[in-house]
Amino acid sequence: MRAHPAGPRHAEVLPVGRLGAPPSDLSALDPKVWPAGAERREGVLYLAGHDVRDLAAEHGTPAIHLDEADFRARARGYAAAFAGSDVFYAGKAFLSKAVARWVAEEGLGLDVCTGGELAVALAAGFPPDRLALHGNNKSTAELRRALEAGVGRVVLDSFAEIARLAALAEELDVRASVLIRVTVGVEAHTHEFIATAHEDQKFGFSLASGAAAEAVRRVLKHRNLDLAGLHSHIGSQIFDTAGFEVSAHRLVGLLGEIRDEHGVELGELDLGGGLGIAYTPEDDPADVAVMAGELRQIVERECAMSKLAVPRLAVEPGRAIAGPAGVTLYEVGTVKDADGLRTYVSVDGGMSDNIRTALYDAAYTCVLASRESDAEPMLSRVVGRHCESGDVVVKDVWLPADVAPGDLLAVAATGAYCRSMASNYNHTPRPPVVGLTAGASRVLVRRETEDDLMRLDLG
Ligand code: LLP
Which residues line ligand 1 (CB under 6 A)? Predict the structure, then answer.
């Protein structure tokens, strides 16, 4: 345990409930938050055996480093926990050709939700029959491409799309396997879930209004559409099964109605993604095997009550596979004391490589990565370099008080929804994603350059 002789700096402005007392060891790496390959050697952070100072020298900053073994282990963990079910990695969390290959090699399916994500998957040679295409407004061109490629499932989201896909399937003389996305009236966030009677959102077919039942009728009428089952996605960063329980109850209810009305028992039930991860030590995500067991039990119980055969289950984790594998390295540029209130530590990235803090008030864990320090804890706000005061990377964090320009900071759990939501705000080239194995660091997606951006500007 390290002593902080001068006591925490700026402790008087501690935001209530957000950040507790400073940890006894500012350099500690909570294994819940950091990738399995993260460790300190003589105070310096190593990722998958790589000294972060070497990574920064070779790949620059900011950069997102993705621990391949961690990603694969989580993918494998999901496949094992959901054995007998289908696990689709949600590519929106982060997708590149290499990642698509990791997913394929670990035996998972892949959920893509745009023509762009579909293109990455196909370019990587991902088996098309293990792809599921999502989206509330897929274009005719995207649907055509999906059918031509032979994607395994199209998740239908609107009446217009049913007609569109049926016409395309007829034209191409194929039978498209589809799921109907049902809006079950449950929106789950972390620990609480809200049942919305009006189901006020753009995705799927409302169960309560009868739209979902009508979608089933229309799909069953089309020779070129094969209704494989139902789909629902209730939200993200969910830590327990309460929301899934309500969702499964309602979906199985609909399966029963479909059997009664049409005499068919649909074979698949996709419960979507949303399983949460630890961004900070305070987060307490459920163990995937426990979660899988509970979900299975819930569906089995509901089916037994409705006297239905248990359908094949599917889940679509994105964040829970990619998130913990990623660490962003930044270099500190300026350190500014705001009138004794708190210290603003500016790094060379920001809301262009991680919009989640600004957009969702997301909390992150951040440490001084390039050296050890015995300095006292200092209440800090890690901010970016963009022209906006909301450009915050980590809102509240204890950093050693001697943090200085040139230091490297590491932010954990940035593997999901950081690079995939990155922007060019302020004409900033987007950061690279570097894949780390014990033996090598390999650029998976290279850093954008000013030239890349200028190429789009036709003058
Ligand atoms: N399946 C469907 C149909 C989805 O819409 C999503 C996420 C997933 C699976 C994967 O969810 P996950 O397991 O990753 O939570 N940008 C937000 C997250 C948006 C998620 C949208 N849909 C964020 O940064 O937190």
Answer: 90, 92-93, 111, 134, 233, 236, 272-275, 316-320, 356, 360, 416-417, 421
Nearest to 22 by CA among 281, 315, 301, 334: 281
Ligand 1 pocket: which of 82, 87, 88, 92 to mutate (most atoms <8 Å of CB)?
Answer: 92
E strands, 168-208, in order: 176-183, 186-190, 192-195, 205-206
Rounded mean pLDDT, 434-446: 97
Q: Which fold has domain 134-317?
A: TIM Barrel (3.20.20)
Please count the residues of the chain. Answer: 459
The structural domains of the chain, with segments of one domain joined by +, span 17-67+324-455, 134-317
β-bridge mates for residue 112, sequence order: 133
Same fold, 17-67+324-455 and 134-317: no
Find how far residue 21's CA is from the centre of its chain: 29
Are the CB atoms for 233 and 175 separated by under 8 Å? no
Place of tokens 């409302």: 206
Residue bearing the bigger pLDDT, 432 or 439:
432
3-state secondary structure of 330: strand
Rounded (10°) CA dihedral 179, 185, 188, 193: -150
pLDDT value at position 2? 41
In this predicted model, what pLDDT tens digit does every residue of 257-273 receive, in sequence order? 999 999 999 999 999 99
Helix (H) or strand (E) holding 246: helix 242-262
* C-alpha span between 2 and 376 (Å, rounded): 10
User: What is the dotted CATH code of the domain comprising 17-67+324-455?
Assistant: 2.40.37.10
Which is catalytic among the residues 113, 303, 366, 387?
A: 387
Q: Is 366 a catalytic residue?
A: no
Half-sphere exposure of 288 (CA within 13 A, CB side): 24
Residue with the nearest Cα to atom 5 of ligand 1?
233
What does the DSSP assignment read for 373-404? --PPEEEEEEE-SSSSTT-EEEEEEEEETT--
Given a contact cutoff of 8 angstroms between Cβ atoms, the answer to whether 99 and 415 are in contact is no
Q: How far is CA 382 from the centre of its chain?
A: 22
448, 365, 369: which is closest to 406 by C-alpha?
A: 369
